């Protein structure tokens, strides 16, 4: 099958993934990848994506998708208070905590 | 039960692991103190003449480090969770304690259960006790190696695309992936939620069945947990040990043979099939035409779910946070994920991000989901004519450490035969089928059954195991070369 050309990337012929595409994906996935990793991953992701794209060979236009092996229905329970983690337990793994709350780096930019 | 019971106490095993895990490196943490506490509780029950909490009370176990344990570190093989001590027990952990099973420690694994060799662990690889320069399989290589090295008679693994079965196959041990939803996922560090399933690992089929019954069953804390009786796996394993398989119809998956399968693996599989026939099973060949597309579908679906699940590692609430004075949350998040995740996890997150992105969704993730439907239909059609399906568990025996790390696609091929059952949610297991004539390393026979018919495969596996052991003069695991750690 012919691979779709990634948007925003200058994919050279026959390649699914360029270095620029990897940089874009890494940004979306919040991974501050290094320059060396861009080179490494561009080659590897290209091989992987070309290979998995073979799912496109299957004629499946009229086939419904399966997201789950077991048919799922919504599961309800009574809205009652049950034992749960204490505040101390919930914060026990926090990188930083203050006054019983998670302490996080600033969320807004300088200009905001 | 295993003869370990008479040879080691839980406390002695814990001390032995602490002293001599260096060669194999099956464990990331040894929880000796807690294990002794649980063992003492069982001793007290016995001394007081009380009924033991379960048939496995006092039998120690190695727990994959992806299952949360209150007060005991849980790293999932990642730097991201290096110092994390969970504030709660997984349902699997709680059920083990309720059954009086001492947890010796947490076993090594590929980071976040992504891999087929345990080389993706941030804490160094585990070595196969059969040949220390070989991989023990993955992602649950630590659990399987702990069994093969006689460090523990029982272990728990998790299987997303083969992470219980493939390590079982290459270490000459038994590994079972129950029906999806058969064992609660509450407290499993999530990789691919529609596929992840915890299951028992042991040295014999009956031990695996006994452990299966301890951990299985409905759990209201997991909305995908099946609200149905646990399949009668222990009864089936005992029935199988009688060695009679008359009336059982076995299907050989035609698509899982030929090119890419080692000669020794194929020979071992054919001998196993012949043995099943001798035991009275009716063996036929069946075709599952879409199984050839299971691997690419799996390597789109699992990374897609992984890219979503691993978004939780945001450096805010738990786990690693890289300190960048003055930096904003998003910058800290990106730097932390870069530092905390290894190469394979990053690759899968990016593959998943790609497959789910607008413009590619239909061609990749959407198409993979349709293929998943066709694979389910292949299983349905096959199971209309046979009771169980069989194949080799893996196309090759244990490969050398380092051999495939540079080539992710060749690593993925280790999961060729195990991913269809994962995608369809049906139960599947690996049972040792002997040593390969090529290299003297263990080969596994995979047995698959319809959803909630887990007992069918236990019956076939137990019958096969007893016949193979009888023909071979004892269990395969007895032929493992002596390790320094075992001799000590």
Q: How does this structure look, described?
A:
The complex is a heterodimer of chains A (about 110) and B (about 500). Chain A starts with 18 loop residues before the first helix and ends in a 10-residue tail after the last strand. Chain A has a domain at about 1-55: Orthogonal Bundle (Histone, subunit A), CATH 1.10.20.60. Chain A has helices at about 20-30, 35-50, 85-90, and strands spanning about 95-100, 100. The longest helix of chain A has 18 residues, at about 35-50. Chain A has 3 helices and 2 strands. Chain A has about 110 residues and is mostly helical. Chain A is flat and about 55 Å long. In chain A, β1 and β2 (about 100) form a beta hairpin. With about 500 residues, chain B is of the alpha/beta class. Chain B is built from 17 helices and 11 strands. Chain B has an 11-stranded mixed beta sheet with strand order 1-3-2-4-6-5-10-11-9-7-8, sandwiched between helices. In chain B, α4 links the parallel β2 and β3 (about 105). Chain B is globular. Chain B starts with a helix and ends with a helix. Chains A and B meet through α1 and α2 of A and α10, α11, α12, α13 and α14 of B.
Oligomer: heterodimer
Indicate the structural class of chain B: alpha/beta
Percent of sequence in beta strands of chain A = under 5%
The radius of gyration of chain A is: 23 Å
The residue fraction in helices of chain A comes out at: 25-40%
Helicity of chain B, as a percent range: 25-40%
Categorize the overall geometry of chain B: globular
The biggest sheet of chain A, with number of strands, parallel, antiparallel or mixed sense and barrel status, is:
2 strands, antiparallel
Q: CATH topology of the domain at 1-57 in chain A, which one? A: Histone, subunit A
